[in-house]
Structure formats: C-alpha cells, structure tokens
Amino acid sequence: MSELKLIDENGRRSDNRGIDDLRQIKITVGVVKNADGSAFIEFGKNKIIVAVYGPREVHPKHMALPDRCVLRCRYHMSPFSTDTRKNPAPSRREVEISKVIRESLEPSLILSDYPRAVIDVFVEVLQADGGSRCAGIAAASVALADAGINMRDLVSACAAGRLGDKIVLDINDLEDKEGDADMPVAYLSNMEQITLLQLDGKLSSSQFSECLNKAIDGCKLVYEIQKEALMKKYFGNETELKEEI
Amino acid sequence: MSSSKRSTIIVEQLRKQQMLESLSRGKRLDGRNFESYRNFEIEVGIIDKANGSAKVKLGNTEVLAGVKVETGEPFEGLENKGALIMSAEVLPTASSHVEPGPPDEEAIELSRVVDRGVRESKMLDLDKLALIPGKIVYTIFVDCSIINSDGNLLDATSYAVVAALLTCNLPIFEVQNDKVVDTGNIMPPPITTIPISVTAVKIGDSVLLDPTMEEEACMDARLTITSESDGNLVAAQKGYTGPFTINQILRSVEIARIKGEEIRSTIKGLNETG
What we know:
The complex is a heterodimer.
Chain A: E1 25-29, E2 37-43, E3 46-57, E4 70-77, H1 92-105, E5 117-127, H2 132-146, E6 155-163, E7 166-169, H3 173-178, E8 181-188, E9 193-203, H4 205-235, H5 238-244
Parallel strand pairs in A: 4-5
Antiparallel strand pairs in A: 1-2, 2-3, 3-5, 6-7, 6-8, 8-9
Helix pairs in contact in A: 1-2, 2-4
Chain B: H1 2-24, E1 40-44, E2 52-58, E3 61-72, E4 83-90, H2 105-121, E5 130-132, E6 136-148, H3 153-166, E7 170-176, E8 179-187, E9 196-203, E10 206-209, H4 213-218, E11 221-227, E12 233-239, H5 246-273
Parallel strand pairs in B: 4-6
Antiparallel strand pairs in B: 1-2, 2-3, 3-6, 5-6, 7-8, 9-10, 9-11, 11-12
Helix pairs in contact in B: 2-3, 3-5
C-alpha cells in the first residue's frame, strides 16, 4: 500500500487534503418537489439525493405498529454511479447499508408521535466516491427535518480511517480501497451519542480510540453544514435564494 | 390483529421491566454475570463431505459451518488472490419465528459482519491461493446454517467459521499444460491469525456479553468488535436502534480484546489436539 503514497512528505493526501480536512460538502434542502422532505448532498464527488415520504399510511397494513411509527429506509446506487456499471438490483451490501442507515437515524426521531404510520427514507446515490453511507445519513437527517418530523437532534456522519501510521479524517474512494482501515461513524452532537459505528481494517486499541474521536470531530463539522443548509431554506434571505435559482 | 400486537407489546414491556430490575441488582435473568458466556462447546470435522466443518453451541444457540473448496475465476480487481465467499442462513428449524425464503436483512448483515472479520484480519492468506494468476484460483466457500437460535448468532457463527477454516484441509491442485488437476493430496490452509468477534448488547445502562434471545428482545443496541491474535481490532459493527456513548464503546473494545483472547485459546486448542 505504501508504494501508492496516500500521504506525501508534506502530509498532503491524494486529493491535496491535510489529514484533518473534510472534503467539500454542500447540502441543498427541498430539491424533490413531490416529497414531504428532501435534500441533496455533494460530499466530495459523492452526489446523493434523499427524499422522505411520511408520516403516511402503512402498506402492507400489517406492518403498522400501534405505539409508534415504522421507519423504512432504502439505500440504492444508480447503475451509472460507479466506475463499472452497478447492477440495479439491490446487492447484499445495499441491504446491509439500508439497515445501518435506518438504525443510525432512528434514535434521533420521536417515532411514538406517529403511531400506525410509516416514514419512508429513500437514499439514492447518483455518484459514489467513498463514504456514501455517511453522506447519505447526513442528507437523510436534513431531509427528515425538512419533512417536519419530530426529532431530538440531527444525525451527522463522517468516517475516519488509517493510512499507514496516520489516522485521517473523511476517507475518499481511493483511500477506502487502498488504505488500511475505514471507520464510518454517525453522531448526535447535542446528545453526545453514537448511532453508527462500523470498522473495516486493522487498528490497535489506541488507534481505535483516536480514530473514533477524529470521526466524531468530523461529525461535529458536518453538523454545522447541516444546520446552515436548513437555515438557508427556512430563514435565508430571498435575494440570496433567487441567485441560487 | 392489532389487539394481539398490543398484548405482545405489553408482554414485551413487562419482560423488559423485569429484566431491568434484575440487571440493576447486577444479575441477569439466567443468573449469569454481565460479562460471562453461556456454556460454549465446539466440535470440528463432523461433515465428511466438507473440506472443513465446525459446530458451535453457545447455550441453546447452535450453528454449523462447512467449508467447500473449488477452483474458479478470481474476483475482478483481485486477480492474484484466492476467492473467499461466505453465506449464512437461519434455517426454519431455528425458531418458530423463521420462515423459509431468501435471507432477510438480519441474515445478510450476519454473514457480512462475520465475513468482514475473516477478510479484514487476512486470516487466510489469499495471496497463496492463486493457481494461474488472473485465470484460476482457489474458491473457498464457507456456508453457515443456524440450526437453533437463542441469541448471539453473530459470535456463534463467527466462531464456527473460524474453527471450520482453521481445521479444514485444502485439496492440492497442480497446473499441468494450463489446466488445473486435483492431485488427490491435501494440505493445511495458509492461516495467518485468528479473528474473534465479541458482541456486547446494551439494555438500559447495562452492557452484557453473549446475549440470549430474550435479552436481545430487550436490547437497545448491539456492538460487535472483532480482534485478531496480536490484539489489534479488525472489524466493528454497531447494530439495532439505540445509541452508545464513546466510553461505552471504548470499554467494549477492551472487553472484546480480553474475552477474545480467552475464546481464541479454546479455538486454537482444536488444531493441536485434533
């Protein structure tokens, strides 16, 4: 792996970032007209659109829960989102990611406020660049807020990882493939709780703790960008919004 | 239908209440301490037709893993490595809740998390399992059947997989005139390390190891940590809907390393006595 030089002698990474730099992140709220809530996130080269429908009636009806709302989540990659065409049928990876995204969002939502209903979250990856589950979670939480779902906190997400002996923030596609470890984390900044934690790759016990703390610092940065995106839609001044259009 | 569901929810809440009371006194409903495992038994080489096999019992949970070795094309991008393919099925025998059919998200997560531990630790040195690089490599299938389900399927399955791989025998293939021929001889697999997963579940403020199905029904969150022989961590997966604090995670990592070493020495012993 070292022959590839994921970090140069000046501490710069393949995309010219330092070890603690996030990629460029931009979130736009309310991009799908028919949805109850939606968001579009550009996280480096990731381009992901999230639409939220609900709370609405559950189909099939037997899935409804008498004391709370059902949360459903679909993470899906478009066939053109990757280097080689991705078969559009849901892969095992997508099934697992759908599950962990749902579980990372659920602690933030007050689902008991909507008994017998369902909230559907559709995460569509239009272009993938490593870290798409984290970008998807961040966008999904904003889309849920846009849909007016009662929530305790926004869920922010970011990965950290290891390249050689360095722990770095926000692993990109190349670093994911060629690096030594990747740890995606989702975090509730106000509640100081972790709602997603995965690890692929080798870390010592002290590296694990450094990596986890670094990922949480990244989540806090993402949290500010999420808040700004929501503020812009709901409180932003109109001339500024018109320029966007 | 909804009235029966309501009564299930009442029963669930009563059971959770009872469990929380017991845990607040430092005891689990089956009398165990928070960090103790149920009775752990492991048997290897029980399927003659498989190249390797292992049956793990963790309390009433029972899992069988079988290794089958074939030759085939390498994966794209991994042309010079053997191929490792893992699957897990919760059999309809496992409990009254299971319906036959394609694996649901729970079973997919199960096999992917077990696979992650083996793959990321590089337990099998796949570089040694290419026959004609880029064309023909060893293809190693590890398939798991959950026979009886009483909680902690993740760890039970992971131990069965590791034990089956550790004790399997690979057929020796030879390349003759660009063709692969089975010599009829066998060799031990190229093992580099032994990954062991330890799963902790959080119920209220208590963190328990080796949960029963009853405890899993009450859990708020689950965390699986896989460590390897030198104590490094190779895989992790948080599951279920509740959150963890940083301290709970870091403490679980330490417990996973200590407990993992204990289980590793049991599994290592299989090879020496077998």
